[in-house]
Amino acid sequence: MASKGWFNLETAAGTMPETQFFEGDSAFKMLGLTRMQRLYGFGGCATHSRDSSSRIAVLYAIGTVVALVGTGFLLGFMKQLKMMFKPVRIVATIVFLGAIGLVFVGAFVIKSDVLCIIFVIIQYLAYTWYTLSYIPYARTAVLKIFGM
User: Which of 75, 97, 107, 110 is a good FRET partner for 65, with 20 to 30 A between their CA atoms?
Assistant: First the structure.
């Protein structure tokens, strides 16, 4: 008995042509790229250089800054700054903003991929702790979950 549903590989095999990625209905059809040009593009995007981790870390830090600016538009920038530096979240804010700065230092001054990734992890954890401060009892619940 053939299975029905979204995970039926036998019936799906006949519906997807193997050349779909190179010919026909491509997402970038409007660019008019040849098969070889698309392969070059794929290779260029998939290639990892020595400092790819620091590039990712810098882009992540920039994205976080953009997200903060976005919430500033919603709340008002002065109100957001006042809320960020309330006693309940001042430590998380300082660690968070410091980690963003250290990502850039690690990428452009020290030029260390490992440090960039460490600073991104610290940034993520500080941002999570900072965000939890806006939800009543969220920090307490997280500490309880981790047995602290």
Answer: 110
